[in-house]
Amino acid sequence: MPVLRRGGGVAALCAALTTVVAPALAAGDAAPVKARTPALALVRTVIAKPSTIASDLIFTGDIQAQSQVNVSFRTNGKIAKRLVEVGDHVGADQVLAKLDPQEQRANLNNAQAALASAEALLTQAKLSFKRQEQLLASGYTTRPSYDDAEQQLRTTQASVDSAKAALGTAEEQFSYTDLKAGVDGIVLSRTFEVGQVVQAGQTVLAMAQDGPRDAVFNIFEAVLAAPPESKTVEVTLQADPRIRTVGRVREISPSVDPASGTVRVKVGLEETPKAMSLGAVVIGTGKFRSRPAIVLPWSALYRWENGPAVWVRDTVNGTVAPRPVVIERYGPNTIALKGGVESGEEVVIAGIQLLRPGQNVAVAETVEATR
Question: What are 318-327's pLDDT values in tens digits?
C-alpha cells in the first residue's frame, strides 16, 4: 500500500472539498431562499351611514291618588270605637271612629242648663217690663222704675243669646267625638287603636281622595336633561299589558332624592281603568326627539384605552386602526354613535379579537348598515 505524505494528503483533501462545495455555493446564489409573508386577518365590515333614531324611554312606577287627606280628631279624648280598616272605601259623612264623649256630654248638659236658666230669667224680665209699662201709662210708677225694668229685660235677653252660643259650641264639640273624613276616598293607613288617647289635630288616618289618579315614576336626573319630545306618556298595567291608558306629565319634583338619586315625576291619567287600582305597578313609555346617529352592530364595539372604540379600515392601504367613539345609546343588538365615526368610513364588525393597529386585513364581506 502506498504511503501518503502528510503535507501532500492535506493539500489533496482541501482540493477535493473545494471541488465539491464550490458548485453547491454557486447553486445557492442562483436560487436564494424566499422571505415568508405574514397571513392577512380576515374581517367583515360595514360602511357607516347616518340614520335617524328615536328611542323610547321606558320606566316603571305605581298608581297614586292626586289628592291625599290626613284625617284627625278636632278635640282631645280617648278612642272608644274604630269602624274602618285599611283599604275600605268610605263616604264623606261616614263615621270612621268615635271618642269617649263623657267630657263633651257633661259640657253639653251644662250648656243646656245654662240656657234654660237664662230663658227663665228672660221670661221674668219680660213680665216685669210689661207691668212697669202698664203702670207708667196709668201714672202709678216712676220713670226710673220703668227704665230699670227695660234694662233688666235687655240684660237677660243678652244672657239668653250668650247661653245659646255656648250651647252651640258644646254641641259642636260633642259632634267632634265622631271622626269623619269630609271627602269620599279609600283608607290608605291608620295609626290608632281603641283605648288610645289622641290630641286635637293628631293624624290618625291617611286617605286617598276619590277622583283623578297619577302614575308616579322615579326617573334618573340625567334623563330629564334631554326630556322626551312630548309630555304624553303611554301607561300600561304590568300585570296585564292589554290594559293601557294615556297621561300627561303633571308635576316634576324640583329636587333629587338623595337616597336613590332619582327625580319623582307625576303623570296625570286622562282615564283610569278599574284594574289600575291604587298601588298597581304600571309601565310608562315616552318618545324621545328624533336625532341623527350612526348605528352599528354590537359586535363592532371594542375597548381601547379604557373607553369605547371601533376598528376603522383604511380603504387605501387596507390597514385598520382603533377609533374612540361616543355612544349615544345602547340598543338590544346595536349601538348608536354620537361621534367618532364619519359617514362613508368602513368599520370592522367581525374578526376584531386579534387585530392590532396598522395591521393589514382582508375583507371577507361588507354588509349593509344597520338602521
Answer: 999 999 999 9
Give buried/exposed letters for 129-144 (b at 16+ CB in 10 A, else e).
beebeeebeeeebeee
What does the block give as the cell for 230? 312630548
The owner of cell 334618573 is 220
In 3D space, the residue among 82, 105, 96 whose CA is nearest the CA of residue 179 turns out to be 96
Set of cell numbers at residue 172: 259642636
Minimal CA–CA distance to 299: which of 345, 347, 337, 344? 347
Residues 6+ apart with CB under 8 A from 27: none
What is the arrangement of strands in the sheet containing 197-198, beginning at the earlier edge strand? Answer: 178-180, 95-99, 77-82, 197-198
| β-strand pairing of 56-65 with 281-287 | antiparallel
From start to end of 181-254, where are the E strands?
A: 185-190, 197-198, 203-209, 213-220, 232-237, 244-252
| One-letter amino acid for residue 179 of the chain | L
- Beta bridge pairs of residue 121: none
Q: What size, in residues, is the chain? A: 371
- Alpha-carbon gap, residue 195 to 82, rounded angstroms: 10
Q: How far apart are CA 146 and CA 280, in angstroms?
A: 78
Helices and strands (DSSP H and E) totals, the chain: 4, 24
- What are the grid coordinates assigned to 49, written together? 351611514
Give the predicted TM-score (pTM) of the model.
0.57
- CA-based nearest residue to 43, from 308, 331, 321: 321
Q: CA 149, CA 99: separation in Å to the nearest integer?
A: 46
Task: Report the distance separating Cα 232 and Cα 252, nearest Å.
Answer: 14
286-343 pLDDT per residue, tens = 877 777 889 999 999 999 999 999 999 999 999 999 999 999 888 778 898 989 999 9
Residue 116 grid coordinates: 234654660
Q: Encode pLDDT of 26-77 as tens digits.
A: 444 444 444 444 568 899 999 999 888 766 778 899 999 999 999 999 999 9
Q: Name the maximum alpha-carbon separation found in the chain.
A: 203
Question: Which secondary structure element, helix H or strand E, spans residue 17, and what is its range?
Answer: helix 6-30
